[in-house]
Design goal:
Length: about 90
Amino acid sequence: MGPGAVSRVPAPCGTPAAYTRHRSHGEEICAACRDAWNVRCREYRALRPVPWKRLRPEPVPVVLTGREAAVLAAHRGGDLVLGDGAS
């Protein structure tokens, strides 16, 4: 090792750092590391809620022309049968 180099000891299994090590080395992720990563993700999500993902979008209003509105009103009133009238 050169001057100023630090010997790094890999993080032990069961830590989020070990999970990322498994992923970067293409290794199979052990259960302890997966559990540690899941706990870390849950804690992270708890700190940063995203309320806009839970909101439903507002319905887009339908704008009818005068003729479309008249046809729709006649149809609803039973005065107009759309199509060939065969049921």
